[in-house]
Write a structure and sequence with these properties.
The complex is a heterodimer.
Chain A lengths: L9 H8 L7 H9 L1 H18 L12 H51 L1
Chain B lengths: L2 H13 L3 H23 L2 H18 L9 H24 L12 H5 L7 H14 L2 H12 L4 H8 L3 H19 L1 H11 L3
Helix pairs in contact in B: 1-2, 2-3, 2-4, 2-7, 3-4, 4-8, 7-9, 8-9, 9-10
Classes of the chains: A mainly alpha, B mainly alpha.
C-alpha cells in the first residue's frame, strides 16, 4: 500500500465532512493523523451547512413555463396513445394475416391428403 | 392534509393513468424543479428546457417509482440526469465547456471594496460563487449540500464513480471558499456556526 498524500484523501475528507465513514481505511488513517486534512474536513462541513440554507430558496421561473410543461406532457400523452393505437392496428393486421395463411395452409394440407 | 400527503394522492392517481393528477404534481413541484435546474445550468433558458424534459421523463418513469424516497427527491435525481444529458449534448456541439480543473479567477472579487462580507450578504455571495463554479463541480455540490442527495445517487445520475463524486465535492467546496474569500469566510462562518 502506497503512502496516502493529502490530495489523495479528498474522498475521505468529503465523507467525513458529511458524517460518513470513508470507504478507504488508508485514506481515513491519513486524515486521522493529518491536521491539514482535519482542518479541511471542518471547513467542508461549514461550507456544507452554509449551502444547506439555500434549500428553502425558490426561484420564480418565467410565468409561461408551467403552461409549456403541461402542454409538453399532453403532447407526449397524445403521441404515445397514437403510437399505441397504430401498433395495435399493425399487430391486429399481422395476426389476421397470419391466421389467413394458417387457414390456407390447413386447407391445402387437407386437399393434398384427399388427393393422395 | 400535508403537502407530502397531497403529493402522494396525486402520485397514486397519476400512476393509475390520470394525466390531470400528473398535472397537479407538476404544478406543486415545478418551481422547486426549476430552481434546481437553474442552479445546475446557470441560466433561465437552459433551466426551462431541463424542467420540460424532467417532467416528460418523470411521466414515462412513473411506473418505476417505488416510493422508497420522497417524490421530490426522485424528481431531483431526474432533473440532475436531464441537466447532465443537456450539458453533454451541448458539450458535443460546442467542444468548449469549462473543464472541472479550470481555474476560476474573478478579479472583481479581489478588488471589491466590500469584499469583507457581512453575514447578511453571505447568502448572495454564496449564490454568486456557485454560479462561478465550473458546471461539473457545481452539479455535485448543489445536489449534495443544497438538495441532500446521497453520494451514490449523485454518482449514478451524473454518470461518474462515487469516488469521483466525492473528489469533485471536496474540490467544489474548497473552490467556493476560495471564491468567497477563504479566511474571511472561515472566520465568519466559524464564529456563526458551531462545528
Amino acid at each position: 500500500m502506497g503512502v496516502v498524500r493529502c490530495e489523495d484523501a479528498a474522498p475521505a475528507v468529503a465523507s467525513l465532512a458529511d458524517g460518513l465513514e470513508p470507504a478507504r481505511p488508508a485514506q481515513a488513517a491519513h486524515v486521522g493523523s493529518c491536521l491539514r486534512c482535519q482542518a479541511e474536513v471542518l471547513r467542508d462541513r461549514r461550507m456544507s451547512r452554509a449551502l444547506a440554507d439555500l434549500r428553502d430558496e425558490v426561484l420564480q421561473p418565467d410565468p409561461e413555463l408551467l403552461g409549456t410543461v403541461l402542454d409538453a406532457v399532453d403532447e407526449f400523452v397524445e403521441r404515445r396513445a397514437a403510437l399505441r393505437a397504430r401498433l395495435a392496428y399493425l399487430l391486429g393486421g399481422a395476426a389476421a394475416t397470419a391466421g389467413t395463411i394458417a387457414v390456407m395452409l390447413v386447407r391445402r394440407g387437407r386437399g393434398e391428403a384427399l388427393a393422395s | 392534509m400535508t403537502r407530502d400527503q397531497e403529493l402522494a394522492d396525486h402520485l397514486t392517481a397519476a400512476r393509475g393513468g390520470d394525466t390531470e393528477a400528473f398535472g397537479e404534481l407538476v404544478k406543486a413541484t415545478y418551481t422547486e424543479t426549476y430552481t434546481l435546474a437553474f442552479r445546475l445550468m446557470g441560466n433561465a433558458d437552459d433551466a426551462s428546457d431541463v424542467v420540460q424534459e424532467t417532467y416528460i421523463r418523470a411521466f414515462k418513469a412513473l411506473g418505476r417509482f417505488r416510493g422508497d424516497s420522497r417524490f421530490t427527491t426522485w424528481l431531483y435525481r431526474i432533473t440532475a440526469n436531464c441537466a447532465s444529458t443537456h450539458l453533454g449534448r451541448r458539450k458535443r456541439l460546442r467542444h468548449a465547456l469549462l473543464d472541472e480543473d479550470t481555474q476560476i479567477v474573478d478579479e472583481a472579487w479581489e478588488h471589491d471594496p466590500e469584499f469583507t462580507v457581512d453575514n447578511g450578504q453571505l447568502h448572495g455571495r454564496l449564490v454568486e460563487a456557485l454560479q462561478r463554479l465550473p458546471r461539473a463541480m457545481r452539479a455535485v455540490v448543489v445536489l449534495r449540500d443544497v438538495y441532500d442527495l446521497t453520494h451514490e445517487d449523485i454518482a449514478r445520475e451524473l454518470g461518474i464513480s462515487v469516488t469521483a463524486a466525492k473528489v469533485r465535492l471536496h474540490r467544489a467546496r474548497r473552490r467556493l471558499r476560495e471564491i468567497i474569500g477563504g479566511d474571511e469566510a472561515d472566520r465568519r462562518w466559524g464564529g456563526r456556526r458551531a462545528v
